[in-house]
Design goal:
This protein is of the alpha/beta class and about 230 residues long. The chain is about 40% helix and about 20% strand. The chain contains 8 helices and 12 strands. Helix 2 packs parallel to helix 3, helix 4 packs parallel to helix 8 and helix 6 crosses helix 8. It starts with a strand and ends with a strand.
Length: about 230
């Protein structure tokens, strides 16, 4: 298998050098940019399997870059930020980030998150042989990797697909927050419940007739989520 290509974007040269050397030592192919515009051009020209993107950059900040990436790409994105308020984490996730690493971070932590995000994306390519799941106007066809609602195909990113798969395969059973996080995001996760809140909202907005009053993905407050089993 070819090494995964990672685009790192940061305006601090010493951090770029640190990230590049450690990622290359872990056998990843690394390309780098020091500003948002260059990053977008590089991503369009060369492509990448993952983007590691700093939030605090002059000119176009990381949130703006992420929004522009999401206009045409589902490439996984890890945001780097010195901010530690949950509102910034949620903001990044709502814009389409796959993960968030707060500065200062250890190289080990970043490499673990990179591996987890890439593993999650690769898992999305697996073909599942179980029969399609049908509940009312909702159909999830695992073998063809399709979700149909009201005869319309719904496009899902890798994390959305994996989260919905877990809920549907356990229809009628409450999935605990920590179990969902570990099964979908990876064993390194367990307490990042804001990730679940944001991605469950993504799914509700795509598959529910009334996302504010869902009939498929239900919340067990303080516990987890369940996909309602068809009658």
């Amino acid at each position: 298998m070819r090494p995964a290509k990672i685009l790192i974007v940061d305006d601090e040269p010493h951090l770029l050098k640190l990230l590049r050397s450690n990622l290359e030592a872990a056998h990843y192919k690394v390309i780098a940019a020091m500003d948002g515009a260059s990053a977008l051009q590089m991503l369009d020209k060369e492509g990448a399997d993952l983007v590691v993107l700093d939030v605090m950059m002059p000119g176009m900040d990381g949130f703006e870059v992420l929004q522009k990436i999401r206009e045409h790409s589902v490439v996984p994105v890890i945001l780097l930020t010195a901010k530690d308020q949950e509102v910034d984490v949620v903001k990044g996730l709502k814009y389409g980030a796959d993960d968030y690493v707060r500065k200062p971070f250890s190289v080990h932590e970043l490499l673990a998150r990179v591996e987890a995000v890439l593993r999650r994306g690769a898992a999305g390519d697996e073909v599942m042989t179980q029969k399609p799941f049908v509940a009312g106007d909702f159909t999830m066809d695992f073998e063809r990797r399709r979700v149909i609602v009201h005869d319309k195909e719904i496009k899902l990113g890798p994390t959305e697909w994996k989260l919905l798969s877990q809920l549907v395969q356990n229809a009628g059973r409450v999935m605990l927050h920590q179990d969902l996080l570990r099964k979908v995001w990876g064993p390194e996760y367990g307490g990042e419940t804001e990730y679940l809140r944001v991605y469950v909202n993504y799914l509700r907005n795509k598959i529910e007739d009334d996302p504010a009053h869902p009939k498929y993905i239900l919340t067990e407050h303080g516990v987890g989520y369940l996909f309602k089993k068809p009658e």
